[in-house]
Amino acid sequence: MIAFVVSVANNGVIGAKNALPWYLPEDLKHFKEITTGHVILMGRKTYESIIKRLGKPLPNRTNIVITRQADYKVPAGVEVYDWIDKAMAAHPNEDIYVIGGAEIFKETMDKVDKLYMTHVERDVEGDVYFPEVDWSKWKLVSEEKHDGFRFADYDRIYV
Predict the structure, then answer these.
(1) 2-156 — its CATH code?
(2) What is the pLDDT of residues 58-97, one digit of tens each?
(3) Which one, of 93, 58, 98, lies nearest residue 74 by Cα?
């Protein structure tokens, strides 16, 4: 299974200046619950935003970074690939959780089976946007409402 784990504002914003444009502790906890113990796949900028915030890769997960920089340096245990398909092929029997950024979401949209989305119920200023979703291909399977945001899980409809 391949899944997206993403928080999206009403206007499609997912990032601002290489960071999350909001602070929602419940969302961070939800993200941790979904991804811990699994493979997470991200672009270089997303990885760098995590390092800037935490000072280390996300613990208790296999961190995969996609970058075109052939000599990109990461700590031991972090995997680097120059191509998404290579990264996925290296983990054929594992669930992969794509966590950003916009280009990685766009490039994997046709491969994803599940969306774990936090809908931030306001417009937010930012410079990174989630790609357009063809909602006719998705079915809402669960939803949990909170004050100002909601968790929603979607499964791809296969015909």
Answers:
(1) 3.40.430.10
(2) 999 999 999 999 899 999 999 999 999 999 999 999 999 9
(3) 58
